[in-house]
Design brief:
Blueprint (H helix, E strand, L loop, with lengths): L2 E5 L2 E4 L4 E8 L7 E7 L6 E6 L6 E3 L7 E6 L4 E6 L8 E8 L9 E4 L3 E6 L1
Parallel strand pairs: 2-11
Antiparallel strand pairs: 1-3, 3-8, 4-5, 4-9, 5-6, 7-8, 9-10, 9-11
């Protein structure tokens, strides 16, 4: 059982940057693919980014490519999402997830955090 706890969300202005963190506990962190997802009000949860077990490969949703960067520190059991050039449409609850397969669909992730709110004002 892996427990995930996100932090770092908040209210920012368009164009600002924000760094989300996710702390993992209860499992062997390096065994898991890690992903970030987000859910805006009235919308389905969507994929944002994923990173492989060693961190040697990363995948991004098209709208965040070039603006967001996912990274992980297996020694600290942490995964991060650096978000730059934020837009109002990035407003959502952001979730950290752990899974066994390097995929973008949420069904491939078995463990989820409770989420952290990111609000971008125009």
């Amino acid at each position: 059982q892996v427990h995930l706890l996100e932090s770092g969300g908040g209210l920012v202005q368009a164009g600002d940057s924000l760094r989300l963190s996710c702390a993992a506990s209860g499992g062997t962190f390096s065994n898991y693919v890690m992903g970030w997802f987000r859910q805006a009000p009235g919308k389905e949860r969507e994929f944002v980014a994923a990173i492989t077990w060693s961190g040697d490969s990363k995948n991004y949703e098209d709208s965040v490519k070039g603006r967001f960067t996912i990274s992980r520190d297996n020694a600290k059991n942490m995964v991060y999402l650096e978000m730059g050039s934020l837009k109002p449409e990035d407003t959502a609850v952001y979730y950290c997830a752990a899974g066994w397969q390097y995929r973008s669909h949420s069904r491939h992730y078995d463990y989820w955090g409770q989420g952290t709110q990111v609000t971008v004002s125009s």
